[in-house]
Design a protein that fits this description.
Distance between the termini of chain B: 57 Å
Structural class of chain A: mainly alpha
Number of strands of chain A: 0
Oligomer: heterodimer
Radius of gyration of chain B: 17 Å
Largest sheet of chain A: none
Order of helices and strands of chain A: HHHHHHHHH
Helix content of chain A: over 70%
Number of strands of chain B: 0
Distance between the termini of chain A: 66 Å
Helix content of chain B: over 70%
Number of domains of chain A: 2
CATH topology of chain B: Helix Hairpins
CATH architecture of chain B: Orthogonal Bundle
Largest interface: A-B, 90 and 73 residues
Shape of chain B: elongated
Strand content of chain B: under 5%
C-alpha cells in the first residue's frame, strides 16, 4: 500500500471517529451535534498530539507535536467559554514556550538521536495506565451522575473586563498579580545568569 | 451541554500521558515537555470546574492564568539549566547531571 493511500485511510478513520463521537454524544447526553463534533475533534487533537510528544524519536518533531496538542487545549478553552484564556494559551504557550523548546532542542542538536529513547518503558507505561484507570474510577464515582444546576448554565459568564478589574482590585487579586510579575522577573534574570556563557579571560580574572 | 466528566476524562488522559513522558524519556528537554503537558491537564480541570461550578466568579480564569505564568517561568529556568548542564557535561540526560552528588 502506498503511503498516500495509508494517510488517506487514517484521515477517513479520524473523520469517522469524530462524526461517530458527535452522534454518540448527541444520542446519549443530548449534546448538540456540532458541539459534540467539536469537542471530540479538539480532544483528539490534544491527546493525539500529546501521545506523539512522548513517543517521537526526533525531538524537533516532538516540539511541533507539542504545539498541536497545546492548540487543541486552546480549542477546549473556547468550548468552555473562556476565550481570553484560549488567546493567552496560543500567545504564551505556542508563541513563546514552544519556541523556547525549539531553541533548547536546536542548542543541544547533536543529541536529538539518543540511542535509547526511554528508561524502563514498559514499567512506566503500566504505571501511567494504572494512574489513568484510577483517575477514571475516581471521576466516575464522584462526577459520573453529577449535572450542573440549570441557572449556572444560563448565568452571565464573567468576561475579560471582570478579570482585568479583579487583577488590580485591592480587595481582589492584586497581591498574587504583583507576586506573579516579580516571579517572572526573577525567572528571567535567573535564566539569563544560568545560561550565560562565561568567556575565558573573565574566568581568569575571577581566579 | 457536554457532561463535566468528559472534560475531566480528557484531562486525566493528558495528565497520564505527561506522567509517562516525565518518567520514561531520557532526554531532559523531553522531560520538560511532559511537565508542560501535565500543567495543561491541570488547567483544563480548573477551567472545566470554573465553567460548571461558578462561571459568574472570576477566580477560575485568574487561577488558570497564574498557572500559565508559573509554567512560563518554569520552562525558562528549566531550559536554561539544561543548556548550562549541556555546556559543561555535553549531555542532556538528567541522570548524568550528578555534579552535586557527594
Amino acid at each position: 500500500m502506498s503511503e498516500s493511500m495509508r494517510n488517506f485511510l487514517i484521515f477517513l478513520l479520524i473523520l469517522a471517529v469524530v462524526i461517530g463521537g458527535g452522534v454518540l454524544l448527541n444520542s446519549l447526553f443530548s449534546v448538540p451535534f456540532f458541539l459534540g463534533v467539536t469537542f471530540v475533534a479538539f480532544g483528539l487533537i490534544t491527546l493525539g498530539g500529546a501521545v506523539a510528544v512522548v513517543t517521537t524519536r526526533n525531538l524537533f518533531r516532538a516540539t511541533i507535536w507539542l504545539m498541536v496538542s497545546l492548540f487543541g487545549i486552546a480549542g477546549l478553552f473556547v468550548l468552555l467559554e473562556a476565550p481570553f484564556l484560549a488567546a493567552v494559551q496560543v500567545l504564551v504557550y505556542i508563541g513563546a514556550i514552544a519556541i523556547l523548546f525549539t531553541f533548547a532542542v536546536m542548542l543541544t542538536r547533536s543529541l536529538t538521536q539518543l540511542k535509547d529513547r526511554y528508561n524502563r518503558p514498559y514499567a512506566t507505561l503500566a504505571a501511567s495506565v494504572l494512574l489513568f484507570a484510577f483517575l477514571t474510577w475516581v471521576i466516575w464515582q464522584v462526577w459520573g451522575n453529577w449535572t450542573p444546576s440549570g441557572d449556572i448554565m444560563l448565568a452571565t459568564i464573567s468576561d475579560t473586563t471582570d478579570l482585568g478589574v479583579a487583577l488590580v482590585d485591592k480587595e481582589g487579586l492584586v497581591l498574587p498579580f504583583e507576586l506573579a510579575s516579580l516571579l517572572l522577573t526573577a525567572a528571567m534574570i535567573g535564566a539569563i545568569v544560568i545560561a550565560r556563557d562565561v568567556d575565558e579571560d573573565e574566568k581568569e580574572k575571577r581566579g | 451541554m457536554i457532561p463535566l466528566w468528559l472534560y475531566l476524562l480528557v484531562s486525566a488522559a493528558l495528565f497520564s500521558i505527561g506522567t509517562f513522558g516525565v518518567l520514561a524519556r531520557r532526554n531532559g528537554v523531553a522531560v520538560l515537555m511532559g511537565v508542560e503537558l501535565m500543567l495543561n491537564a491541570v488547567n483544563i480541570n480548573l477551567i472545566a470546574f470554573w465553567r460548571y461550578m461558578s462561571p459568574t466568579e472570576v477566580n477560575g480564569v485568574a487561577f488558570a492564568a497564574f498557572v500559565i505564568v508559573i509554567a512560563a517561568a518554569e520552562a525558562a529556568v528549566g531550559l536554561a539549566i539544561i543548556i548550562s548542564v549541556y555546556r559543561s557535561r555535553h549531555s542532556v540526560v538528567p541522570e548524568e547531571a550528578d555534579m552535586l552528588k557527594g
